[in-house]
């Protein structure tokens, strides 16, 4: 759940000049980076509330139009900057209607060692 790195597929044109490098940096620190933060945060929130943090959310119907994004009426991505770096922080809380949307459109895929609709049951290799 997140990005440890990214790959831009294309030519060396991305790094051919200082200006083109700056454009890529601005894109990563701007819209692309905000999108990654949005999707990663939404996945973490869904996992926490639907799967008790013991699984990940997947669409109930793979062909649906449901996406894991932060709810704009409930969350904001705030960027704090100082002289050396920027940091993005997600502010907000999950509202009841947001939780209903998640429950209606997603189910849990439990991590190893967990089972149940909400991944609340712990089990070992012997099935206990």
Automatic annotation (TrEMBL):
EC number(s) recorded for this UniProt protein: 3.2.1.35
Magnesium is among the record's keywords: no
Keywords per UniProt: Disulfide bond, Glycoprotein, Glycosidase, Hydrolase, Secreted
Organism: Micrurus lemniscatus lemniscatus
SUPFAM superfamilies named among the record's database cross-references: (Trans)glycosidases (SSF51445)
Subcellular location: Secreted
Protein name, UniProt field: Hyaluronidase
This protein's record includes keyword Calcium: no
Family under the similarity heading: Belongs to the glycosyl hydrolase 56 family.
Main location: secreted
């Amino acid at each position: 759940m997140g990005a440890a790195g990214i790959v831009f597929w294309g030519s060396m044109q991305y790094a051919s000049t200082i200006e083109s490098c700056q454009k890529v940096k601005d894109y990563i620190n701007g819209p692309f980076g905000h999108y990654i933060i949005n999707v990663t945060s939404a996945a973490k929130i869904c996992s926490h509330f639907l799967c008790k943090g013991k699984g990940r959310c997947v669409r109930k119907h793979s062909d649906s139009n449901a996406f894991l994004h932060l709810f704009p009426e409930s969350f904001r991505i705030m960027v704090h900057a100082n002289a050396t770096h920027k940091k993005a922080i997600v502010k907000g809380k999950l509202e009841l209607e947001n939780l209903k949307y998640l429950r209606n459109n997603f189910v849990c895929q439990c991590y190893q060692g967990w089972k149940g609709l909400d991944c609340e049951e712990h089990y070992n290799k012997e099935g206990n």
